[in-house]
């Protein structure tokens, strides 16, 4: 990890990863190939962590062409610049668990792939580019990870922001489902482990423990001292949602020794609120 370049270094993960590994940020435009070439040719990089992407699903749905430009074409440019200037560096690439077909149960790396939305399609197609690139690469399929500093566009930060405003009736979707939600601290630790151990291949990054959304909401309100009522808003309910989705992190744990620390709703909320 002596020389690590990070794209998307100012984002939710990148801003935490940079100090954790002493990495350098890529400060140019991801779609500016000359800037990428200049950055990748500046020194003998050990690894490139390519975090820059449009990751908000509704934003990708509203503008698919921009999502594909940034998430797919941007990745293609990173790969080409690496081939020219840093062919021995390892690529660490965050994909998404949303590339898997929607199904109840535990998802591992052998589960069927059927991207669920525009965002997932950009990530899956980027995975295919990486697979064919000839570069050493670690692809991390990320499940949900959260923290109070995350955008309120996401589920738990939405609850947090609304509760802190003192709202007693909080609009929500279907809370009677379970999802594998982890915390950003574990997510950053997974990137550090991948950089340290450098395994090739595809790996899930998840808590391995599905959380009931209703219990998360109740626990968060309790911790914040708010007597809230959660009201289902039809526009927030997705038709055909599976009752439970969980991931298996066995492969990443065996390859790197990484283990998450988010086994239940109470621990999730505790670490979500931590500075």
Instruction: Give the CATH topology of one domain.
Output: Rossmann fold
Low-confidence parts? none
Q: Report strand %.
A: 15-25%
Measured between the Cα atoms of the first and last residue, the distance is: 26 Å
Taken in chain order, the helices and strands follow as EHEHEHHEEHEEHEEHEEHEEHH
Task: Look at the structure and give the CATH class of one domain.
Answer: Alpha Beta
- Shape from CA axes? globular
For CATH, the homologous superfamily of one domain is named as: NAD(P)-binding Rossmann-like Domain
Q: Counting H and I runs of at least 4 residues, what is the number of helices?
A: 10
Work out the helicity level: 40-55%
Q: Nearest-angstrom radius of gyration? A: 19 Å
Mean pLDDT figure: 95
Largest sheet features: 6 strands, parallel
Structural class: alpha/beta
Can you tag this structure with a few keywords?
275 residues; alpha/beta; Rossmann fold; six-stranded parallel beta sheet; 10 helices; globular
Structural write-up:
There is one protein chain. With 275 residues, the protein is an alpha/beta fold. The protein has a domain at 4-146 and 181-210 and 246-261: 3-Layer(aba) Sandwich (Rossmann fold), CATH 3.40.50. The protein contains ten helices and 13 strands. The protein has helices at residues 14-21, 33-40, 57-62, 64-85, 118-131, 155-164, 184-197, 213-224, 250-256, 265-273, and strands at 4-7, 24-25, 47-50, 90-96, 105-107, 136-142, 144-146, 169-172, 178-183, 201-205, 210-212, 229-232, 244-247. The strands form three sheets. It has a six-stranded parallel β-sheet, sandwiched between helices. Strands 5, 7, 9, 11 and 13 form a five-stranded mixed β-sheet that branches. Helix 1 (14-21) links the parallel strand 1 and strand 2. Helix 6 (155-164) packs parallel to helix 8. The two termini are 26 Å apart.
């Amino acid at each position: 990890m002596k020389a690590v370049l990070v794209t998307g270094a100012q984002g939710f993960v990148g801003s935490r990863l940079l100090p954790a590994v002493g990495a350098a940020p890529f400060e140019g435009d991801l779609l500016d190939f000359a800037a990428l070439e200049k950055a990748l040719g500046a020194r003998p990089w050990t690894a490139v962590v390519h975090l820059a992407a449009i990751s908000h699903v509704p934003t990708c749905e509203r503008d698919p062409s921009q999502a594909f430009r940034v998430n797919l074409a941007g990745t293609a440019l990173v790969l080409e610049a690496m081939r020219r200037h840093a062919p021995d560096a390892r690529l660490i690439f965050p994909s998404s668990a949303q590339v898997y077909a929607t199904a109840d149960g535990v998802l591992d790396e052998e589960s069927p792939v059927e991207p669920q939305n525009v965002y997932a399609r950009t990530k899956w197609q980027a995975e295919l580019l990486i697979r064919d690139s000839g570069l050493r690469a670690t692809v991390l399929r990320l499940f949900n990870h959260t923290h109070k500093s995350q955008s309120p566009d996401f589920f738990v930060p939405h609850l947090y922001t609304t509760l802190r405003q003192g709202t007693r009736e909080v609009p929500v979707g279907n809370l009677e489902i379970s999802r594998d939600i982890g915390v950003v601290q574990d997510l950053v630790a997974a990137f550090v482990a991948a950089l340290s151990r450098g395994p090739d291949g595809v790996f899930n990054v998840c808590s391995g423990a599905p959380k009931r959304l209703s219990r998360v909401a109740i626990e968060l309100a309790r911790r914040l001292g708010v007597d809230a009522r959660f009201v289902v808003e039809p526009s927030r309910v997705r038709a055909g949602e599976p009752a439970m989705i969980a991931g298996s992190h066995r492969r990443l744990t065996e390859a790197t020794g990484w283990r998450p620390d988010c086994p239940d709703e109470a621990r999730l909320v505790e670490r979500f609120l931590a500075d």
